[in-house]
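Late entry, evening session. Most of the bench is empty. Finally got around to the prediction I had been postponing all week. Sequence below, unchanged from the version circulated by S.P.
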Amino acid sequence: MLGLRVDHEVRVFVSNGAVVHFTLREMHALYVSWQMWVLVLVGFGIMSTGHPVTLPQFESFELRMAFWLIALFLYVVLSEVYSLLICKVWGRAFDRPIPLIILSTPLLMFATYTTGAILVLLFEPGRPPFEVMTWQMNLRNIFVAHVFETVALLWLIPAQRERRNRAQPDRVVTLAGRTLPLADIQRVKAAEHYLEIYNSKGTEVLRERIATFLEQVGPQDGIQTHRSHWVAADQAVELSGMFLKLQDGTKVPVARGRLNDVRDWVHDLTQREERLKAG
């Protein structure tokens, strides 16, 4: 169950009009990368400086620094579970990518207001707990956080994927105790307690769950079009109605609830191929 949660794909609409796909596993890997913490330190420096009205209204510099450290800690710790819950609710209600500003703003407000209230109660008791927050500060926080989150989604996660692919050129998956080269797998179909593994040599049947396979792949490798079907990225040709057409002419069914995900994924693949040809 944990594997299914961390490999849940999140679709986010960012300000430049792009739809970004990532998994919670990728988000976690990003949080522990040095590139992310360089970005965080830059953001931390920007957040903790500026006009006094855009800063937490504490009397001491130490409390203002403590405010940013605690708020950042809360934001990072809660973000994975929060993103999973919000995106599931949003997907059921709207069936489209969630705008990044809508996804991140409530968590940002919760982290900053909770931190402000805690510090006031501990170090400045008797003062209204939310007096340290100004509307100018809230607007600035939202804007700065949005810019840095956009940078992380548009550049850091794709760069992270490229590094992983270069470090593991011959990636494998382990199914039913066997190790299979991922590059050889064209598509996977679940049939009761078995998996049908399709490759250039034919079909192989293994007693395994599709969830075990999905835990070992990501959006850059392929997509689950249906609860029983997975397709490799290099095999997809086009989306036709409720089917995804493959290189060999096979048409794989697409579940209605996954149709928008598959459409966006195919669009991203097409754009990537066009960029490669242009380069």
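Two things to note before I forget:
The two ends are 41 Å apart (CA to CA).
DSSP finds eight helices and 13 strands in the chain.
Will write this up properly tomorrow.
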